[in-house]
Amino acid sequence: MPQPVNNNVATINLAPNCLVFVTASVQSDGLESVTITDANNNTVFQASGTSPQGGQFIVIGQGTLQTISTPNAPYTVTLTQGCAYMSSESTIVLGGVYYLQQYTFICNDGGWPSGDNDFNDLVVQITCFGFQG
Ligand SMILES: [Ca+2]
Question: What residues are neighbours of ligand 1 (ion), with CB under 5 Å?
Answer without folding.
Answer: 27, 55, 118, 120-121
